[in-house]
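Comment thread on ticket #2218

A.B. wrote:
> Attaching the input chain for the structure job we discussed in standup.
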Amino acid sequence: MTAPARVVLGVGGGIAAYKACELLRLFTESGHDVRVVPTRDALRFVGEPTWAALSGHPVSAEVWDGVHEVPHVRIGKEADLVVVAPATADLLAKAAGGFAGDLLTATLLTARCPVVFAPAMHTEMWEHPATRANVATLRERGAYVLDPAVGRLTGADTGPGRLPDPEDIFAFCRRLLAARRGDLAGRRVVVTAGGTREPIDPVRFIGNRSSGLQGYALAATAAARGAEVTLIAANTALADPAGVKVIRVETALEMREAVFEAAAHADAVVMAAAVADFRPAAPSESKIKKTDAEPEPIRLVKNPDILAELCARRREGGADAPGVIVGFAAETDDVLANGRAKLRRKGCDLLVVNQVGAGLGFGTPDNAATVLGADGSAVEVPRGPKEALADVVWDLVAARLPGRTAEVGRPPVSAS
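C.D. wrote:
> Ran it. Output below, let me know if you need it in another format.
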């Protein structure tokens, strides 16, 4: 954990406001200085004395209290992190619209630090087009809007809209605070994620099990550490990471074109996507019908090796080649031997080697890997959240960027 931070805990007017007391406890017991800024409606659920006693600071929802200290400007400007929990539909709308009618919304407008919203509302409110548009707007501006949990809501209702567990919110915020060092500030990085699909006919394809979770974790972590991030996503169903430019592709050929365009003048490229090795030579233009006869064999051709091409361009002295190139290798057996052979063959700087299957890798929230370096190094990353592996990868990348040093081998920042 980095040095104690100045945290603003905004509390919206929802029944889940009582859970924010636990979130406040997690922050204060970790040594952080927390200022609670509730809305007027939030104080109808949890009173001002409770927040003041737990935080050690006076509490108000009004811009008129302590006017001589200009709190509506000072609180946001001085904060290292603002987290709003619960973030109601009304509060998300006001934040997206730039309203400043109370101390919390004014604080959100003046904050120049990471801002996290943890939504809590009924399912119908969360799924309403207006709320979805407000969430998209906030994410485009760089705010972090967590997805709500699924479970029991107020009354007998059940569905998406439940406030995420306070420990999960705290873990996410802890990662952002740990990334305050901004060691990737001013750097342009490209990350690929997901799995390509190679069409057999208009309705069928050759694909793989990649969900894109690791690539998205890499993109979000790089953004939190100050980088300008382009994420090239192949066939994922994940929400766009806050503050990240997302380019969507489907096939390996589309991925290749997008990577070479985005990689021009990039400081680093991390190829986390699972790119198909082969594609049908002649996809059918219409759906292949099932008949009594055996189907015709599908002839495959090789897809381009994007990682190897990228490394070859750099060896040839391309002026627009990235400074650091990272590959991924998903293996089922002889993991390290296959990984070292691939590292030599591809020519990248780092290769993240992980075993897939047995509950690891594709589609899971956690991962374990060994990061091999072209310099002979090997960093073991024990099983943990994919965000923790992402932090290790960026630590190693930062250490190899021209003109920049980093703490190689420091303990990974865990999100749990």
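A.B. wrote:
> Thanks. Noting for the ticket: The chain is about 30% helix and 25% strand.
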